[in-house]
From TrEMBL:
Species per Swiss-Prot/TrEMBL record: Streptomyces cyanogenus
NCBIfam families, per the entry: oligo_HPY (TIGR01727)
Main subcellular localisation: membrane
Keywords per UniProt: ATP-binding, Cell membrane, Membrane, Nucleotide-binding, Transport
Name of the featured protein: Oligopeptide transport ATP-binding protein OppD
ABC transporter domain: residues covered: 8-256
Pfam family, one: oligo_HPY
Membrane topology: Peripheral membrane protein
Places the protein is found: Cell membrane
CDD domains named in the record: ABC_NikE_OppD_transporters
Lineage: Bacteria, Bacillati, Actinomycetota, Actinomycetes, Kitasatosporales
Family: Belongs to the ABC transporter superfamily.
GO MF assignments: ATP binding
Length: 341
């Protein structure tokens, strides 16, 4: 079996605050191979972005405690120095942020910002960096790139700014690309264009992609594998088809039930998940989803509220839930049948 390009093992990210310790990520493990896309999905506050900031080494060490293991091409990142991380960021690994306008400097041209990243990691001249910036703008579909390279961010539309962010992230041909909800603020047409662009560029570069989102429709379009997070933990893992068509955790079931099915009847009422995500300052004991779970009373002995369910993964598939397979077949039958063709 080949060694994964990215391997995260028992990652914990805890923040020190005036109110106490926030357990933002609390024991997370996953692997990612080159050329594959892992979709990480969950509500706000589930730990998605915190996980990927830890991979990039962007947390403030003064108030952040990291534990576990993050291996990028066999290089340990948690213990890496800031100098090592700076060498890797933008070069071997890169990130597309959600808000391109906030992430781009209003005082510098698009070309200068793309070129700066390239110069830092290659030591090339300004002229060479400009040529590279024009090439990248062309690759991401910016019209007249030799002219638009001298424009400022405010002169680009939202979709074009996002394309420029992608060009900046890919300018050094990174082997790992983290996309943090890059299409959230875009209309559906531009969103589809950006998704197609990412898939085309992945085929061209063979990049491993982590795609963070709360939108399961986006996951269905771009991901190979899916990791569902809740309360700083992984509650379900599997291939896209396994997770979206045959969920094994009540939280995943709730996420799917709260969005319209693209391949089913349009008159099926949506079923929002009751309650709110947990406070990670004082998270619930046992399964963190149990206060909102409609099936918690089906498990004998109150185990859901007292015992953390193990995430047992077999061939990449697993769910952290105390319900037995028989109970899941009994409780989830209509849903699973409706989405399995």
């Amino acid at each position: 079996m080949s060694t994964p390009f990215l391997s995260v093992r028992d990652l914990k990210v805890h923040f020190s605050t005036e109110d106490g310790i926030v357990k933002a990520v609390d024991g997370l493990s996953f692997d990612l191979e080159k050329g594959k896309t892992l979709g990480i999905v969950g509500e706000s506050g589930s730990g998605k972005s915190v996980t990927n900031m830890a991979i990039l080494g962007l947390h403030d060490p003064r108030n952040t405690a990291l534990d576990g293991e993050i291996l990028l091409d066999d290089k340990e990142l948690i213990t890496a120095s800031e100098k090592e991380l700076e060498r890797l960021r933008g070069n071997k690994m890169s990130m597309i942020f959600q808000d391109a306008l906030a992430s781009l400097s209003p005082y510098h041209t698009i070309g200068a910002q793309i070129g700066e990243t390239y110069r830092k990691h290659t030591g090339c001249t300004k002229r060479e960096a400009r040529v590279r910036a024009i090439e990248m703008l062309r690759r991401v579909g910016i019209p007249q790139p030799d002219v638009r390279v001298d424009d400022y961010p405010h002169q680009f539309s939202g979709g074009m700014r996002q394309r420029a962010m992608i060009a900046m992230a890919l300018v050094c041909d990174p082997e790992l690309l983290i996309a943090d909800e890059p299409t959230t603020a875009l209309d559906v047409t531009v969103q589809a264009q950006i998704m197609d662009l990412l898939k085309d560029l992945q085929q061209e570069f063979g990049t491993a992609i982590i795609f963070i989102t709360h939108d399961l429709g986006v996951i269905a379009d771009i991901a190979d594998d899916v990791l569902v997070m809740y309360g700083g933990r992984c509650v379900e893992r599997g291939t896209k088809k396994e997770v979206l068509r045959d969920p094994k955790h009540p939280y995943t079931l709730g996420l799917l039930g709260s969005m319209p099915a693209l391949d089913g009847p349009v008159d099926v009422p949506l079923s929002p998940i009751p309650g709110s995500p947990p406070s990670l300052l004082n998270p619930p004991s046992g399964c963190r989803f149990h206060p909102r779970c409609t099936f918690a009373d089906k498990v004998a002995g109150g185990r859901c509220s007292s015992e953390r369910p193990a995430l047992e993964v077999v061939d990449g598939r697993g769910a952290a839930c105390h319900l037995t397979p028989e109970q899941k077949r009994e409780l989830f039958p209509d849903y699973a049948a409706a989405r399995t063709h």
